[in-house]
Task: inverse folding
């Protein structure tokens, strides 16, 4: 209900693009017209205009075996050449590609020529280490330039990278290395976070001790934290001893447009993370197009900053591939927003004269809490466009972002997309769209979105329903690594297997208002969104029951003012263990820590409640909806389908 009221109030707020902004905007109405008139032709034009092809394609889309799409598949290109060499050849070698800033305050400006050089050296090292086309390379690095170099070096030689976020635990890293059967891990001794060095190489050592396959032959280590590490002389190599001494001559070859580029693991509704597979030609086309059109990129004068870590899809598409394909100058920052002082981000905006900032609502909300005086003690007048991603942005945060950070008159674009979609799918286009706070607004040109009821029929009017993508798009996932069946079932068979019912099911609820603008309503499955990061209830539940004290566990995502959602767990202890357990507070602490160690700190529950029972239906299914009511402090909803309808009273009294 609150959602509805909120929307009714917000609908009166619209912001027209200013005439000055519109006059210089990259995107204009023609894009929509062209895409409406000939969708595939539109994408083919983008692919030809935005990228360099070693061999031009003649076929745009092969959809003869859905849901396995092939885009531009008789063409050949090299992703690294598109992001680097061609810019240097066009005379842009001296343009800064990365203004890098480490958390302790060390800085490096890296030009396109220097970045190209470094990627060529790294590519030579990878080849010397026996990494060939299609081999998998796990990358477990902090936000340092070498992360970008490592990804592009893989792309250059046709190897497949699997970047694992540096906050993940040894277990999580091990399962990802195993699933992809990686031959090489690229890591650092450590990285800086909140003023301290966090170890990475020791986590890799621990992960490799666990992986049974033993597919990893080498570990390439960047020196960053200068922390003590163990060394396995047969397996480990220093980056500064190999890459720095390698030749900077490297001739890149073109690969098929459907050659795999990367695997990125993300949470689904089951306990096992899915390795989302992306390929080259279509992916690069859509990330380059959206990066340019949605962020109104003028590469010759803009300084762009996306605050995401390269360990997430946003870092892949809008730190590495989109901006570099478009020859942008960007900021890369290693650390946390509040180290060593709460104005760190704004100091960076001022120092580099950032003009485009792309971040997540959770960050905006935590800045809101700290107050406007912090950003206002810096000069933010260089900003001319703001973006948001990762979760719905509430209208108040949107308005604060525009006014306090943006000075009140610059566009804010809210971009909806997913690891699976590879690139932005729904967003306003600045300079064209009248902006509406809280709504992600309209599909980008060339993307077809609909909202359907559970049975696959169209929803009535402005009713909420399920968000679907009705036509294949260039940057769509090509599968789940090693699991084509799961790919089909999870995403394409929600409404049945008949050809006219096969559509991409995103897992998000949405509604369309009377103007046709789309409002995202959150996940409809057991996936949580904590600070814009995806977590699965099942994954955390299985971690909790792996602890010797726990008999059963249920996890819900409860609304949280800052992080959007927070993990709240309900556990039943094993009777045999109850004596071993001292106080319930201790249990809660121990289990919170256990989850953080098993999965990573982002998965640590905000609360763990010890209860005697969990609410179950007669068929034994846990009713998480009721637990969510409890966790959010609401009146508990309809309990009539519970096997024992009085159980919620018992649980409520235990939780209080
Ligand atoms: O629920 C949606 C939410 O984040 C999910 C995708 O998460 P992930 O694959 O980790 O990618 C995040 C960054 C692209 C979606 O299913 N989401 C993402 N952006 C938005 C959003 N929800 C509402 N509004 C958004 N702008």
Result:
């Amino acid at each position: 209900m609150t959602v509805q009221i909120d929307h009714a109030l917000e609908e009166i707020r619209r912001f027209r693009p200013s005439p000055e902004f519109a006059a210089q905007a990259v995107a204009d109405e023609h894009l929509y017209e062209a895409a409406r008139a000939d969708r595939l032709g539109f994408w083919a034009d983008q692919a030809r205009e935005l990228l360099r092809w070693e061999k031009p394609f003649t076929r745009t889309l092969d959809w003869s075996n859905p849901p396995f799409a092939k885009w531009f598949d008789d063409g050949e290109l090299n992703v690294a050449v598109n992001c680097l060499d061609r810019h240097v050849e066009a005379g842009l070698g001296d343009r800064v590609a990365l203004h890098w800033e480490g958390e302790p305050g060390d800085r490096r400006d890296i030009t396109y020529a220097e970045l190209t050089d470094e990627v060529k050296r790294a590519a030579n090292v990878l080849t010397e280490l026996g990494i060939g086309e299609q081999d998998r390379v796990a990358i477990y690095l902090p936000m340092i330039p070498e992360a970008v170099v490592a990804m592009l070096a893989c792309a250059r030689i046709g190897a497949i990278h699997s970047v694992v976020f540096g906050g993940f635990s040894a277990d999580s890293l091990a399962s990802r290395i195993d699933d992809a059967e990686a031959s090489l891990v690229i890591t650092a001794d450590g990285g800086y976070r909140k003023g301290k060095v966090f170890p990475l190489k020791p986590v890799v050592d621990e992960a490799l001790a666990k992986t049974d396959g033993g597919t990893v032959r080498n570990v390439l280590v960047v020196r960053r934290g200068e922390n003590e590490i163990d060394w396995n002389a047969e397996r480990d190599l220093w980056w500064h001893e190999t890459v720095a001494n390698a030749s900077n001559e490297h001739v890149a070859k073109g690969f098929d447009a459907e050659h795999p580029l990367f695997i990125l693991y993300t949470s689904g509704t089951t306990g096992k993370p899915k390795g989302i597979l992306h390929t080259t030609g279509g992916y690069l086309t859509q990330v380059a197009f959206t990066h340019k059109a949605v962020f109104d990129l003028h590469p010759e004068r803009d300084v762009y900053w996306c605050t995401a870590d390269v360990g997430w899809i946003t870092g892949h598409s809008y730190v590495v591939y989109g901006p570099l394909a478009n020859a942008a100058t960007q900021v890369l920052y290693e650390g946390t927003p509040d180290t060593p002082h709460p104005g760190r981000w704004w100091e960076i905006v001022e120092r580099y004269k950032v003009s485009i900032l792309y971040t997540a609502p959770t960050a905006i909300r935590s800045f809101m809490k700290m107050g406007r005086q912090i950003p206002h003690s810096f000069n933010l007048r260089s900003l001319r466009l703001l973006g948001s991603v990762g979760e719905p942005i509430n209208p108040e945060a949107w308005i604060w972002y525009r006014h306090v950070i943006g000075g009140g008159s610059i566009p804010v674009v809210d971009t909806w997309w997913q690891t699976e979609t590879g690139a932005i799918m729904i967003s306003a286009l600045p300079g064209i769209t009248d902006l509406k706070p809280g709504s992600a607004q309209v599909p980008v040109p060339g993307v077809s979105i609909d909202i359907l009821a559970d049975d696959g029929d169209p929803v009535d009017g402005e009713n909420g329903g399920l968000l679907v993508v009705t036509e294949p798009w260039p940057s769509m996932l090509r599968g789940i690594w090693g699991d084509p069946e799961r790919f089909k079932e999870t995403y394409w068979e929600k409404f049945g297997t008949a050809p006219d019912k096969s559509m991409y099911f995103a897992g998000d609820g949405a509604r369309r208002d009377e103007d046709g603008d789309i409002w995202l309503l959150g996940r409809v499955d057991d996936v949580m969104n904590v600070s814009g990061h995806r977590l699965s209830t099942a994954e955390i539940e299985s971690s909790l029951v792996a602890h010797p004290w726990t008999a059963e566990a249920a996890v819900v995502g409860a609304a949280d003012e800052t992080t959007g959602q927070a993990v709240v767990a309900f556990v039943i202890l094993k009777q045999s263990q109850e004596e071993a357990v001292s106080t319930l507070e201790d249990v809660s602490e121990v289990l919170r820590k256990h989850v953080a160690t098993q999965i990573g700190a982002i998965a640590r529950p905000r609360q763990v409640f010890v209860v005697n029972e969990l609410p179950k239906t007669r068929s034994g299914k846990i009713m998480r909806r009721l637990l969510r009511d409890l966790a959010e402090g609401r009146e508990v909803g309809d309990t009539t389908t519970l096997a024992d309808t009085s159980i919620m009273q018992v649980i409520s009294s235990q939780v209080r």
About this structure: The first strand starts at residue 61 and ends at 62.
